[in-house]
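Bug #77: duplicate submission created two jobs. Keeping one. Sequence:
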Amino acid sequence: IPLIAVEHQANALKTRSEWLASHLLMRTADAVVVLTPEYRDTLRSRLGKAWREEKVHIIPNGIDTDAFAPVAERRASTGVTIGMASRFAGNKRHELLVEALALLRGDAGDWRLTLAGDGETREAIAAQVRAAGLDGAVTLPGYLGAAALRDWFGTLDLYVHATDGETLSTSILQAMAMELPIIGSDVPGVTELLAEGGGCGTVADAQTPEAFASAFRRVVKDPDAARAMARRARALAVSTYS
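Kept job's structure:
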């Protein structure tokens, strides 16, 4: 029976045991699937003599760009709603976004944050929200099924992805398909994706609340650039990741 291995853990986040697993898969699997050329190149460099070029195939994640499509008319609002969809885990930096929102409270306008998903750090983030007195500005809707997730994306003005590393984030691809302005961490797997297609997103200058708050302000203050970036994101999602 042929054995096909799919490498999806971000190379930048792999532990020693996970790198050992990558060595073993390259030796024992009939085919090894990776999601991006950048991932393949890093894997080739790290595995050295264990690398088997003939076994490796690039198959990107794909999304339904008909289902995840721009909403016909966004709700009228004077505020800004920022959202992130991901598992709540240690390598996802939700705490930076909560702190960034606290910094934005002194600005004019109504800034809101919604963090969709579930996982082991969700209760700690909820406690952080309560301690900061942000209960009215931050929502944690939990895990959302496909239809609910599409509706959730439709309520956003900006999509953010704060993380220590990604391979090819489905959530970012969905935000691209929804034609949203995107801000991400400047980390492997995010920086490269947001630079594609002439620039379909922007990255925070550092992994700090201040840098994310600054990035949010920068995008909101230039709506024409934000719309152009979002249109490029949608075009890239349709042409490459559909």
